[in-house]
Amino acid sequence: TMEPGSVRLSPLLLWLLYAHASADLPLCKESDYHFEYTECDALGSRWRVAVPNKADICTGLPDPVHGTQCTFSCNEGEFLDMQLQRCKKCAAGTYSLGTGIAFDEWDSLPSGFTNQGVNINDENVFANCSSSTWTPKGDYISSNTDECTATLFYAVNLKTPGIVSFEYFYPDNAIYFEFFVQNDQCQSTDSVSRWMKISDTKWSKYMAELKTGNNVLYWRTTGYMMAGSEVKPALLRNIGISGVSYTSECFQCKPGTYSEKPGSARCVPCPADTYSNRGATVCLQCDSDKYSEAGSGTCKPRPACTVGDYFYTHTPCDSKGKTQLMYKWVQPKICSETVKGAVQLPASGRKKTCPPCNPGFFLTNSSTCEPCQQGSYSNGTDCIRCPVGTEPVLAFEYKWWNTLPKNMMSYTLRQWLSHSEKTTGWEVAGEYIYTTPGDQDVDNQMLTLQVPGYRLPQSVSKASDNSELSRITFVFETTCSANCTFSFLAGYNQWLNEVVEWWRGSQAKQSYSYLIQRNVTTTFTWSFQRTGESSEGRKHSSDVAKIYSIHIANVIGGVASQCRHCALGPAEYSSACVPCPPGHYMVNGTGACESCPPNTIIRADQSIGLDACVPCGPNTERNEAFTACHSDCTLDVESAGGEQLHYDLSALSNVTAFQGSPRFTNKGLRYFHHFNISLCGGKGKLATCVDNVTESGGRVRGYVCQATAVPSGIRSQSLVSTQPVLISDSLIGVSTDTMLSGISSPDWLFPSANGLQDVIFYFRSSVSTLACKEGRSASVRLRCNPAVSAKDLITVPSNCSEGTCDGCAFHFLWESQHACPLCTKNNYREIVSACIQGIQRTTYVWQEPLWCHGGEPLPPSTVSACVPLDFWLRFGVSAGTIAAVLLISISCYFWKKTRKLQYKYSKLVMDSSGKECDLPTADSCAIMEGEDAEDDIMYLTKKPFFSKIRAYSRERTSDGFDSVPLKSSSSRQRMDL
């Protein structure tokens, strides 16, 4: 890639050039050749060489000479004279950027530009894209409108850091339009954003910095056409690049522009009713019977003025409260009042009393209308405070049109080009606002209304049949002689407008209502086009559209024409009837505030009374503001066997993203549904889905959201996210049950082989749609799987590849080891080893299969002292021996005792055998010498010590004397003998 004004010549080519001579060729004149510079060498110098315009036409070219230094450059309005090798000013009627180049004419593709159409979205899709390129259209160049990728690129070498600037018109988001810069190594340079912002009402200007060296500029578009849709191309014009060393020539001003002084850096457009030719130094005035628009190269004949060339409007109220009807010419004025048959501008009407203010406004002392303060309402005259226990019904209501409201704007949109804010598209007329005669019948006359947002009154419950968030109603009328079109558009963000409804031809006075169910609409637009046919002039200027009234309900920052009883609840922004503190409700409108029960929140659309308090679902708790229930990612559940299980899901609390299986457009191009899930939510942890096609793309936040991801085929960005959708914005509860609050999560969607119950998070969205009147819902099953080490293994049902079968209820399965209950003592067992050398070891191991994670860790192994088995054997033998000896001794003792008793018994029987039935009588009070005293004494001495004591105690009488045994009479008789 070479800079403008430089050339690459090889030594061989130089030699051939200088060595060429022929006696048959004439000497070269200055018109037969031109000068160019060789490339700069390592020392920063170069040569100027003469290059013939045509080969073999002359001889005797000038010898090469040293050129200027490579750091040399020219200023704006100058060019480099190669003959003198110095900068000179451009002549009048021409211009130059000095160290820049410009491209403002697009009759054909300028030199240096390359155009290419390819298919980079999907290699498996066959499409012939060779003809899908950028197309020059005179003043601009237009992109393709199909599903091919059209690339326009230009390579330039800069000696100093420069700037590239261009203007673009980008009306359709169905085309992805990007601009980026790469160096000669195909490395993208840093830029704020490569995606162009939508520009559907005017030309936008873009500027980017360029680095020294080679720069390749890319303008690339790719269309995604849906069934039955028509795509509008992106337009490009006025490309300028600064930072080159010089330009060797000046460019002539194009028709409709001029430069009156030498050294001009740019040409100035001619004003209206003037014209100029190419290279003009001044603009020429059109004849009195002709006219021209600003920047025109020709003049057109003036037509005769008609009633379609002027319009009427009401002047603002003066200090006396008076207004009058005033007539004005349509600007720019192109008609002639002197032509035969021309009409004259009517005189202004008489002053009349101003109409009243619109509802919600009051009339000031200066006869202007101002909005009532918050908490007040008005019928258009005076503001009245709303009674206690009521709230103002906020809305925008316009039925008197003396001045254009501050939040409305009127302009004319030129077809495919730009709009003029100075050109009035709609004018006020007291009882209505209407379209003025336009400059061209194909122009679109636009009226826009800005809306900051919507909020339901507290007295309206979403549980009722009336589930609409807001409604816009307007009364209109059209009168057309041609095939006119009246359109109503709704803008869902700052750069996207979609046609809601349109009417063709004349329409009688009628009312139209549009239901608003999402708090995303920011603008409403009414457009009137007299004809869509490409014809110049004002053939249908009398065609008109009128809007009599506009009413939008439940508008944030609106005004009120009435008040209604409200359900007092938690304090909310801009609410005028909520005296109770957070967590309190009003008791049946009495003004007394009562606290809600524990773990309940205040319903956003509550009724008066205890019904305002909504209990939080299982395993959730209310936030500090009493507005929502949330989870701290810890919960306790009871298993099927009655065991209490504890869960800590903190490791899964961060926002997790995954995408479903690929889908395809009707052209076969691939895209995905990309999901973001915030399991527990919390501060700063809500899931966010954005539209990153442009910097001002849409954004939704909640627990579960979805976006459409399209492969972009760009090195620096693998996916393009668009069309964000909020699936769930509130947590209903956490349970092991398969149904909670009307949200179902059947087991058959995700069959399980283990016996552990899944923990299910239930979510719901408060936003209802036409397809999902109850709002969307989502259930996230957490399944314990110790084999899964990843935290984000999320799947969808096999029979519902996009996570939902009906588009309203979404189901997800999240498998992870972090979804297992916390481990407890019941999940491990102890193993006691044998006693070896007086030491015994106790070890703890997990039970298999292990269905827990984290929690209580395994106790460490323990070591304790113990007694070995041989010791107990020796102890048992010794104890047995002792017991046997003791048993033998006791047996012997009792045997001898028994023999003694038998002896005494026998002796007693023998002594009593003399006389039957008579006991022996005592015949002596003492033991006689020689009798049995020895035996008695012997037996007494053989008794144990304790036995002797017991015997002694028994032998004493009650009176304290010893009892002495006496011998019987028979014994005495034996003694006598």
UniProtKB/TrEMBL annotation:
Any one of the GO BP annotations: autophagosome assembly
UniProt subcellular location: Cell membrane
Superkingdom assignment: Eukaryota
Domain MRH: 631-822
Keyword Transmembrane helix among record annotations: yes
Segments of this protein annotated with the region Disordered: 958-977
Segments traversing the membrane: 871-895
Keyword list, A-Z: Cell membrane, Disulfide bond, Glycoprotein, Membrane, Signal, Transmembrane, Transmembrane helix
Gene3D superfamilies named among the record's database cross-references: Mannose-6-phosphate receptor binding domain, Tumor Necrosis Factor Receptor, subunit A, domain 2
Membrane topology qualifier: Single-pass type I membrane protein
A GO CC term assigned to this protein in UniProt: plasma membrane
InterPro entries linked: Elapor1-like_3rd (IPR056609), Elapor1/2 (IPR039181), Elapor1/2_C (IPR056606), Elapor1/2_GBD (IPR056608), Elapor1/2_MRH (IPR056607), Elapor1/2_TNFR-like (IPR056610), Growth_fac_rcpt_cys_sf (IPR009030), Man6P_isomerase_rcpt-bd_dom_sf (IPR009011)
Biased composition (Polar residues): 966-977
Residues spanning the signal sequence: 1-23
Family: Belongs to the ELAPOR family.
Protein name per UniProt: Endosome-lysosome associated apoptosis and autophagy regulator 1
Organism: Tetraodon nigroviridis
